[in-house]
Amino acid sequence: MTGSTRYQWIGKIPSDWEILKISHTTYVKGRIGWHGLNTEEFIDEGPYCVTGTDLKDGIVDWPSCYHVSEERCDQDPYIQLKESDLLLTKDGTIGKCGIVVGLNGKATLNSGLFVIRPEKDIYMTRFLYWIIQSQVFDNFITLTKIGTTISHLYQNVFEGFRFPVPKIEIQKQIADFLDKETTRIDTLISKKQTQIELLQEKRQSIITQSVTKGLNPNVKMKNSGVEWIGEVPEHWEVRKLKTLTRRITKGTTPSTIGSELLDKGDVRFLKAENITEDGSISENPVFYIDRETDRLLQRSRILENDLLFVIAGATIGKVSIVNSSFVPSNTNQNVSIVRLRESNQSPYVLKILQSSFVKVVIDLNKVQSAQPNISMENLGNIQVPLPPPSEMEKVLEHILVEEERVQTVTRLVNSSINLLKEYRSSLITHAVSGQIDISKYEVSK
Question: For residue range 138-158, what is the model confidence (pLDDT) as tens digits?
């Protein structure tokens, strides 16, 4: 028999289950005050210092951890870790957690985590782990964050978290069940994600083959003179990108002229994050500049059919075409604006810049500094194979048709991944709140 609780984040639970409060049952500590660490203190050997990024697949990934001195670790004995401790992120992405397994020395925490340890033998750490993975905990976090934009879980708030708990033997059954079932689901998701990667490789292969070899397998070929392009149809040209352009420039950050980005305004301001893998421009993130700033930054003003090429940062090499909905707009110094002499060629040149041989050029020419970057000179010197205009239209049409086929399958696979993730989340929530009879489920399996 199940019944509703007075805690709205829990919902219904079996009548013989308890509701426990973290502060009554659990040891919770985090790094505070003058004990704060900075990156300059990290060393190659010594006690581990676990951060949120070290929590992977539900456990601590020890090889990825930083290290600190013995003295620094011993400054705060309350956050020194023990085998089977549960760690929980409390800043940024709240609720990521992992269990301490295979601890082979001293270990402490960075400031973004809590260490959680049951003080009584009322619940299992593995059961609380799954509670935190469930909608029960998500609902609790949502309720506590109402009216604030701060993404931080305060200790006193977490200590007020109440959660449903059955008898220990039932907890073990639920934890074992979820270990098994989520592993099975995660394996399926991983296989589908690999399928998406293969589909994207196929898409790029179609683009590269089409823009370097054309559509006629029997056409006479010639050496392009460029190692990573190889042979091209004999009647094609191979030219530097800059010979096709009116200008190749880059954007400017408004702060260089004492201006600021705005949440609302007259002119969109695009960043590298707006440029997508498929050649379109994403609405998010959304930033604006005012008309006066746009006037002062007119050198980097964007026009329809411009190509935006990311020349710095983690997404270097992504390229998009500007449509009318993003005019007027401007961009920053991480993005190059490639404006062709013949704007009707932009869709075709976009495909060239999405090809694998351009990625080779980027890898050969990018500078590794604080962030990888490629100069506008090197961008302009990229050699591009060009068919006659009439053939260019046919090649582009072929690419777009084949891309749509690949994207149709990709959308279907992504949809199935989302369904599996929803099922996984639902399964966890129903299991930890007693909505599934685990014994019957396992017998039916």
Answer: 999 988 876 566 688 999 999
Residue 10 belongs to what domain range?
Answer: 2-165
Is residue 212 assigned to a domain? no
Contact 393, 345 (CB under 8 A): no
Please check whether residues 316 and 340 belong to one and the same domain: yes
**Is the dihedral angle over the CA atoms 408, 409, 414, 415 positive or is it negative?**
positive
> Which residue type, as a one-letter code, is found at position 363?
D
Positive or negative torsion for Cα 264, 266, 268, 269: negative
Cβ 319 vs Cβ 354: under 8 Å = yes
Beta-carbon count within 10 A of 261 CB: 17
- Given a contact cutoff of 8 angstroms between Cβ atoms, the answer to whether 177 and 438 are in contact is yes
Query: Mind listing the pLDDT tens digit for each residue in 168-207?
Result: 999 999 999 999 999 999 999 999 999 999 999 999 999 9
> Any residues with CB less than 8 A from the CB of 311 and at least 6 apart, and which?
250, 334, 335, 336, 373, 374, 375, 376, 379
Confidence band for 389, pLDDT divided at 50, 70 and 90: very high
- Find out whether the peptide bond into 285 is cis, omega within 30 degrees of 0: yes
How far, in Å, CA of 251 to CA of 275, rounded? 14
| pLDDT 10s digits, 114-146 | 999 999 889 999 999 999 999 999 999 988 876
- Grouping H, G, I as helix, E, B as strand and the rest as coil, residue 82 is coil
Task: Annotate 310-340 with DSSP letters as a single string.
Answer: E-BSTTTT-EEE--GGG-SEEE-TTEEEEEE
Question: Can you read off the two tokens belonging to residue 128?
Answer: 């609380």
User: Are residues 197 and 154 in contact, defined by beta-carbon separation less than 8 angstroms?
Assistant: no
For residue 445, what pLDDT is reported? 45
Question: Is-contact 224 230, C-beta < 8 A?
Answer: yes
Q: Is residue 243 part of a domain?
A: yes
CA 399/CA 125 separation, integer angstroms: 53
Q: Which two tokens stand for residue 281?
A: 């421009």
- pTM, whole model, 2 decimals? 0.83
Q: In this structure, are 30 and 100 located in the same domain? A: yes
Contact present, 94 and 33 (Cβ < 8 Å):
no
> Sign of dihedral through CA atoms 122, 124, 129, 130?
negative
Residue 126 forms part of a structural domain: yes
